[in-house]
Structure formats: C-alpha cells, structure tokens
Amino acid sequence: MEVLKPVKRNILLNPGPSTTTDSVKYALVIPDMCHREREFIDIMDEVRKELVKIVHGDFYKFSAVLFTGSGTIIDDVCINSLVPENKKVLIINNGAYAKRMVQIAEHYSIPYINLEFPEDELPDLNRIEGTLKKNVDVGLVAGVHQETGTGILNPIKEIGEIVHRFNHPFVVDTISTYAMIPMNIEEMNVDFIMSSAQKGLVAFTGLSWVIGNREIIERSKNYPKRSFYCNLYNQYENFERGEGMPFTSPVQLVFALRQAIKEYWEEGEEARWKRLNRCWHAVQRGISEMGLENVIDPAIQSHLVTAVKAPKDPRFDFNRFHDYCYERGFTIYPGKMFKQDTFRICNLGQITEEDINNFFKVAKEAFREMGLDIPVK
Ligand SMILES: *Cc1c(COP(=O)(O)O)cnc(C)c1O
C-alpha cells in the first residue's frame, strides 16, 4: 500500500479507536465507487470470509454479517434479533458493556434476566448454572469477553460449556478482544462473536459485524422483527443472496478494513498477541514505578486494558494529567467504574513497548508538574 506522506502519529491509549498504520489510513483513498457494483460486493464477500477465518470458524457453518455503525450497533442487532417470542435473554453482567446489553433489552421491551456480579470479580459459574436450571423460558444467553471498563477477561469457554448443556445459543461481545487474543469460535463454545473495525483489527469506526452460526440465524427468520434497520436475519439474507448490505455500504471503510486484515495476517495472530502482551507488561512496569496500583487483580486481567487507581492526593487532577499527555501525542481515558476514581491505559492498536515507555516518561513529567512525588505516596 502506497503511503504518500506520513501522517502525524498519535498514540491512543484509550479503549478504541486505536492507533492505525498509515497504510490503513491511505487505503481509504480510492476512486469513487458505487456500493452496488459487483467489484465492490466481491471485495466485501472476501472480507467476510477473512473475518470468519480470524476466529478459525468454518465458513459453511458461520457467516459474517456486517452493519454500518460503531460497536454498539452489533450488540443491538444480536439482542434485538435473537430472542424468540415469549422467551428471555439471560445477560451475565459484571461490567459496563453487559449493562449496555441490559439497556438494549429494556429498550426493546425484551424480557431479560440481569444476572449481576461484582464488577471487579469473575462471574460465578454455579450461579449461572443455577439460574439456567430455574428459568426454563431462557432463549438466549449473552456475555462479554473483556469488560473494557475494568479490563477483566471473563471465562467464556467455561460459561459457554454450561450454556450449551442447556441447549441455548450463546452470544458474546468480543469487541475488545477480537483480532487481539487468538480465538477459536467453536472451541470457545460460542455461537455469535461480535467485533468492530476500530478495535483489534485497527481500522476505522463505522463498520461492525457478528460472526454467527448460520443455522441459528436461519432459525431466527420468524422471531419478532423489533428493528427495521438492525435485523440480523434480513441483513444476513441480503448478503447470502449476493447483494451485500441492503442499504448504502461504507465503501471506503471496507477498503481500509481489507488492508487492516492483510496487515493482521502479515504480522500473524501469535506475534500480534505477543506484541500486545509486551505493551501490557510495559504498562505494569510503568505504573509500579510511579507508585500506582491496579484496580483489578492482574491474574484476571485481559492484558489489553489496565484500570489504575487514581492517586488520593488532592493535587492529582485527571483533566490536567490528560491534557499534559494529549498535547504530547498520548491519549488516555477516564475510568468506567461505579464507585472508585480510576483511569485507564489501554494497549490496543498498532503500538509498541517503546511507545508505552515513552508515554510513561511524559506521565511522570505530568505528575511532577502537578507537584506529586514519584513514586506517589
Ligand atoms: C468498544 C466496545 C463496544 C462498542 O462501543 P462503541 O462506542 O459503540 O464503538 C462494545 N463492547 C465492548 C466490550 C467494547 O469494548
């Protein structure tokens, strides 16, 4: 991919969008093209196959269905399209993104069970099993792989084993782990995996997808159609007829995504995961040098998002800290927890250990500017 002129590189340490390569940025620049042209639909179909391959799925068994929108659109699609009439969705909730699924069910007046767990712990498998035993009217189970608000990685494979024992379909929001943590959809005991272009694949916001079991999608044909634009079966059926999306597709975003997938395979799934892990270890070293602490026990972290306890010192001001780093090319993000003052350092995207080390140089300067000692007390 030709890069005409390097673009200023910002290091995004927020939970998506992430730092992209210039080759992905330049892939947006193409001759104008109508989304109904065979040439484009073929490219989109090729991209769909690649998206299934990333989770080691069999294309005959799983289809990738794309929608135009940020990641939440795909949570919306899965919840509103996959619950049969007179059935409930069971949502396993230990954080902000599961809570969002609860809000979606609420919005569509879909009966749901909100199975809540503390937001700094893993869900209790016995309680999940007990709830499924008691509630025979469950028709779908939904969970989140990484709760991006805290950085907890949930035991999806173990939960999926239980869900499948009760013969329920299992949909999982893997938006903040897909194309970062290597996954195999069938080995994970999952039927629907979600993702969005601006996270692990490191392309641009505006394109999201679900990789879903074809049999279950086909079964959903006669489920209540709760949304006109965001119905999974309708979108799937249009793709399967060879016509792509029913409405105008984001042509340029698909080209950028195709380039990002090419770069994913060039790096390799194991190599990418190793690089991101090196970044996380650099974050852990950095916070410990600064005298800062994790919110979540590192043993249950994803290694992609670190939630950090804000210093108790009254001189600490998150906005000042943020602005100091932002002016120097590093973007950090406030926390998403209910009770504590936290902030997050995320290592998604096309960044390296060296970028993280450079960030900590700036972070230490910012702390000194605020009058804090390092390590903080
Ligand atoms: C980023 C993210 C989403 C999508 O959020 P948008 O702001 O709509 O892109 C959904 N779920 C998880 C777990 C995420 O990390």
Label the CATH architecture of the largest domain: 3-Layer(aba) Sandwich
CATH fold-type name of the largest domain: Aspartate Aminotransferase, domain 2
Q: Kindly report the average pLDDT value.
A: 97
Helix fraction, binned, reads 25-40%
Name the beta content range: 15-25%
Question: In angstroms, what separates the terminal alpha carbons?
Answer: 49 Å
Principal-axis shape: globular
Uncertain runs are none
Ligand roster: pyridoxal-5'-phosphate
Radius of gyration: 21 Å
Return the domain count. Answer: 2
Major sheet, described briefly?
7 strands, mixed
Q: What's the number of helices?
A: 12
Descriptors:
three-stranded antiparallel beta sheet; 377 residues; binds pyridoxal-5'-phosphate; 2 domains; globular; 12 helices; alpha/beta; seven-stranded mixed beta sheet; Aspartate Aminotransferase, domain 2; 38% helix; Aspartate Aminotransferase, domain 1
Q: How would you characterize the overall build of this protein?
A:
This protein is of the alpha/beta class and 377 residues long. The chain has 2 domains: 22-265, Aspartate Aminotransferase, domain 2 (3-Layer(aba) Sandwich); 269-369, Aspartate Aminotransferase, domain 1 (Alpha-Beta Complex). 38% of the residues lie in helices and 17% in strands. The chain is built from 12 helices and 14 strands. Strands 2-10-9-8-5-3-4 form a 7-stranded mixed beta sheet, with helices on both faces. Strands 11-14-13 form a 3-stranded antiparallel beta sheet, covered by helices on one side. Strand 3 (88-93), helix 4 and strand 4 (112-116) form a beta-alpha-beta unit. Helix 5 runs parallel beside helix 6 (156-165). The mean pLDDT is 97. The structure holds pyridoxal-5'-phosphate. The site of pyridoxal-5'-phosphate has 13 residues, from helix 3.
